[in-house]
Amino acid sequence: MVTNRSIALSIVFTIITCGLYGIYWFYTITEDVSKLSGDRDFVGLKHLLLTLVTCGIWSYIWSYQLGKHLEVVHYQRKQYSQDHSVLYLVLMLFGMGIITYALAQSEINKYAHAPHHY
């Protein structure tokens, strides 16, 4: 259903591509969380375009929504988890979006049933 991605390699690829892989990673995280939560309106391309059009401001809203959607995923599977929405937002506000990506990918990887994809 979703792809298990290496967090370390995703960070390295983001750094060596000067952020280009990070754009792809943003998109895939959003798409994977959409699949897991069942919310087909949480679309990667929409959030990517909104982030670009608003010069990055939308990424703050996205990060909060991402945390809420991951909480829904845990709730649907009857698993205890803390709501990380505010943490994701604060990390984004302080310019540490890549950590938000890594934390979200860690949560996604718990539900991945496919081999690594980069």
Global structural class = mainly alpha
Strand content: under 5%
Number of strands: 0
Helix segment tally: 6
Rg calc: 13 Å
Task: Estimate nothing, just give the exact number of structural domains.
Answer: 1
Secondary structure: helix percent: 55-70%
Topology as a string of helices (H) and strands (E) = HHHHHH
Global outline: globular
Average pLDDT level: 93
Distance between the termini: 16 Å
What composes the largest sheet?
none
Low-confidence stretches: 114-118
Domain DUF4234: 5-70
Organism: Paenibacillus amylolyticus
Protein name: DUF4234 domain-containing protein
Transmembrane segments: 7-27, 47-64, 85-104
Q: How would you describe what is shown here?
A:
It is a single chain. This protein is mostly helical and 118 residues long. The protein has one domain. The chain is 67% helix and 0% strand. It contains 6 helices and no strands. The chain has helices spanning 7-16, 20-37, 44-53, 58-76, 85-93, 97-109. α2 (20-37) packs parallel to α4, α2 (20-37) crosses α6 and α4 (58-76) runs parallel beside α6 (97-109). The longest helix is centred in the middle third of the chain and has 19 residues, at 58-76. It starts with 6 loop residues before the first helix and ends in a 9-residue tail after the last helix. Mean pLDDT is 93; it is low at 114-118. Keywords: Membrane, Transmembrane, Transmembrane helix. This is DUF4234 domain-containing protein. The chain crosses the membrane at residues 7-27, 47-64, 85-104. Residues 5-70 form the DUF4234 domain. InterPro entries: DUF4234 (IPR025328).
